[in-house]
């Protein structure tokens, strides 16, 4: 799934890289991309990461902090004036004071952290200032899944979209779009009313796929679900055409107009994101809600794997040589993080990690890639629950205790968003190989693949007095994620 760019694009990327490297001689910088699939918690991850660094949170696996080599961490003015600042302060207020989850990422944003440290190497201390800027670039996962479109023409895009729409639960959700397509003559003169009707029925289909009850992940074009300031523009007002025949579209026809607007979408939306942002990243974390997919059944899991195929195809993980890094950046470390580990008892954390790793490994094999430079882990950016045990007959049952969000249900019980509740979270399959063999047996896998209670919890109450006045947001394995993503640059 190659990403096609013009010679001009490549030249500009090379010049941008050389400019960035020249700036690094004055201020060493690492650009960390943060994205996620289907409400996996990008905003919460960034807010918790920054807060725990600024406030010296509990990060025992983050070696630079554990060893006492971090001398200062501060928020500084970001270098890119054209990119909105990540609203860290407001997100923290909502999490800590209001106990409300921040709103999902809908556009690109950026935040700069400056870390001052003492190198672990005496040699490095002689030649290094012990200071690095971490530019955190937050962008929607839907934008990442748009990058493969750069390698597809309109006919291929339409054919692949139609094939997906005719399978499983998508067939019912796509009925309106498919029926609209079937009633059209693609060679007829284009008119804006027909174009908008097609676009609206197709966007309705994508929105239904993303809803909680289906939780599907592969939904390009991504800007259809979050148009931003381009809403209503011709570049965002088109749709794929089901049953599109071979040959060049007739001039002035509906097919020709849709093809032209699709190419405009790539030029106006996708290429600038790739050239100005994605191609400048050094490290990347991709957050995935594996639990949500598992709770929704085989189709959601298969679609998550397909999305991971497209995600991994966008990256070229590998080590930068000093020469290659001067002319073209390469993302040398990618972390795939299964979020919401706090929704499970710790006995199931390794199972969540193994299931996600199996999805990643299978996706890598599908596209002919290796797992070099890719790490997988289960984490919770903000731990919203604690663990306990309750008596069940003559045995003790492991449970998690938290405050379910208002309107959440288990069986016939509906929660009010105020009362703490002990919930048996259920179990994940212990054997990923057996699990995926069952999943791929021609639809014979059970509808509910994982015996888990997928309940959303409110952010936790944070006892500042109990922490001796230090405000520290609880988490699970955020320190391991930091060590993988940043540890070598602070050595």
UniProtKB/TrEMBL annotation:
InterPro entries, A to Z: YcjX-like
Biological source species: Martelella lutilitoris
PANTHER family registered for this protein in UniProt: ATPASE, ATPASE-RELATED
The name this protein goes by in its record: YcjX family protein
Source organism phylogeny: Bacteria, Pseudomonadati, Pseudomonadota, Alphaproteobacteria, Hyphomicrobiales
Domain of life: Bacteria
Short name of one Pfam family: DUF463
